[in-house]
TrEMBL record:
Coiled-coil intervals: none
Protein name, UniProt field: Chymotrypsin
Organism of provenance: Larimichthys crocea (Large yellow croaker)
GO CC entries: extracellular region
Lineage: Eukaryota, Metazoa, Chordata, Craniata, Vertebrata
Annotated GO MF terms: serine-type endopeptidase activity
Length: 79
């Protein structure tokens, strides 16, 4: 597993992939039987703070796009 190191640069717009067995839609009754994945662009922390406010620190990496994201059950999964 690759882990980010101090000084690593993750520019906004860089493509990444997340995966997990979390819910495939809000309030879905079950999780999927197959591992799911989604390609997402990284966001700058300033972009992320516009949505989440000052909960976002400079030690975080933020990714997301309209129509694709991780969901409940994917927390702690790979990015």
């Amino acid at each position: 597993v690759c882990v980010a190191e101090t000084g690593d640069n993750f520019p906004g717009g860089m493509k990444c992939v997340t995966s997990g067995w979390g819910l495939t839609r809000y309030n879905a009754p079950d999780t999927p039987a197959r591992l799911q994945q989604a390609a997402l662009p990284l966001l700058t922390n300033d972009q992320c703070r516009r949505y989440w406010g000052n909960k976002i620190t400079n030690l975080m990496i933020c990714a997301g796009a309209s129509g694709a994201s991780s969901c409940m059950g994917d927390s702690g999964g790979p990015l």
